[in-house]
Amino acid sequence: MKRSVADSIVETLINAGVTRIYGIIGDSLNALLDAIRRSEKIEWVHVRHEEVAAFAAGADAEMSGSIAVCA
């Protein structure tokens, strides 16, 4: 199977220690979401608004002491 840019991004996130991504599903993220699903190492947390994703990722990072991502 060919490796995509999304696969490389997910691998980089996994190597950085990311375990959760907060975000909104949409056309611009479909390839990334598919790569996340295939990896089974990062949890996607769907939110209803971009601002909520940023707040959730910030709180997650503060409470866990690890990297959290919003998309």
TrEMBL record:
Residues 4-71 form the Thiamine pyrophosphate enzyme N-terminal TPP-binding domain. InterPro entries: POXB-like, THDP-binding, Thiamin_PyroP_enz_TPP-bd_dom. This is Thiamine pyrophosphate-dependent acetolactate synthase large subunit-like protein. Pfam families: TPP_enzyme_N. It comes from Paenibacillus sediminis. Gene3D superfamilies: 3.40.50.970.
